Amino acid sequence: MDEIQRARRITWITLVGGLVLSWALLVLGSVVLLGQERLPWWRAAPALVAAVGFTWLAWRAIAAVMDGRYARREVAASAVLAVLGAFAGGGDPFGWGFLIMAWLYVATLRVTKRTAVLQSAGAWAVAVGTGVLGVATGIGATDLSPAEAALFYGGVHAVWAVTLPPSGRLWVWIWELAVRAHEGREAHTRLALAEERLRVARDLHDLVGHQLSAIAVKTELAGRLSDADPAAARAELAEINTLTRRALRELRATVRGYRELDLTAELDSVKGVLEAAGVRCVTRLPYRELPGGLAPVFAYAVREAVTNVLKHSTATFCDITIRFTAEQAELAVRNDGVARRQAPAEEADGLGSGLTGMAERLAAVGGTVEARPVEEGEFLLKAVVSLPIPG
Questions:
Q1: SS (H, E, C) 9-46
Q2: What is each CA distance from 193 to 254, 269, 277, 347, in whole angstroms?
Q3: Residue 148 neighbours by CB under 8 Å, 6+ apart
Q4: Which CDD domains match (predicted)?
């Protein structure tokens, strides 16, 4: 389960907790009324039906809130059932009267502050009136006078009306922040990948653009000279052939990843891309320059590893460490986003091609690469090269 699903579940459980509390108080109120012989079956039955219907509608209203909607019909219908159930059960604030406050808890989840205040005031007045009416008709669970009941019920329901709506609205607000943060992170990741594609496109343009432009110019010149000076035209064609072969070699070198990369520039680039995607990046580098021929290999490995972090994980941090001795050099890229990585059977289609290319490049300098989960939620890519590099 990823972070956003976990946040959704926690918010859902918390909001439904208000309905669980209402049923706990309903059971308590029923026990008190039955002990006082004030809850005959002809009132208990409709009260129970109303409570069940209210719970079902409130459940649907909470589901709508989690989906970003406000279920007006469910809220309106549950209000009627809450009042009917509260009155049939006697209206005690610690018993059946709590149904009205449970409705207020659900009804204020996705409304403006002004609407929430008006709903709270209305629910308080209805709840107090229902409780006092229950006392006046002798069906309540207390022997207080109507005036005493109005004072007592007014205070208790005021506490409910002041505390319940903000608590529910707080959890909805936290959930919305989590959703926005998740969407923002995905947008940053897409932007980072787009920037990386643009960078590759610029590299290709800089690498072969000059040769292609020269080929176009010389082709036009050879066409003009073909009749006037055939020898000069043949010379231009020969040069076009040379430029074409050179451009093809450089293009193949770029596609296969054999172009020389600057390790320092690559580290700066991937760190910027990761941080733009919301991934904290820490680099640990040796204070000495790497042995000759090793920097381009590690630069390619860093680029490939970070690309996999962005495409195949939900990492929040990425640690890049490079160290070397007289006998060997090591690159380690560790991240905590292994939870959503592809299964091993799928990696051949996803990460496989990139890791294969990296392994081939490292093998060319006598090195090896290893990529595997190492701890709970962490993934490690480690490249090791024996020194000195052959050749």
A1: HHHHHHHHHHHHHHHHHHHHHHHHHHHCCCCCHHHHHH
A2: 18, 12, 9, 20
A3: none
A4: HATPase_UhpB-NarQ-NarX-like
Q: How far apart are CA 316 and CA 318, in angstroms?
A: 7
Contact 104, 123 (CB under 8 A): yes
Which residue stretches of the chain are H helix?
3-35, 41-66, 72-88, 98-107, 113-136, 146-228, 230-255, 263-276, 294-312, 344-347, 352-364
Q: 187-255 — its CATH code?
A: 1.20.5.1930
The structure tokens listed for 348 are: 């051949």
Query: Which pLDDT tens digit goes with each residue over 272-316?
Result: 778 767 788 999 988 888 887 788 888 888 888 888 887 765 788
- pTM beyond 0.85, yes or no: no
pLDDT at 76: 95
349 pLDDT band (50/70/90 cuts)? very low
**Residues 153, 97: Cα–Cα separation, whole Å:** 10
| Superfamily (CATH H level) for 263-386 | Histidine kinase-like ATPase, C-terminal domain (3.30.565.10)
Tokens at 60, concatenated: 């649907």
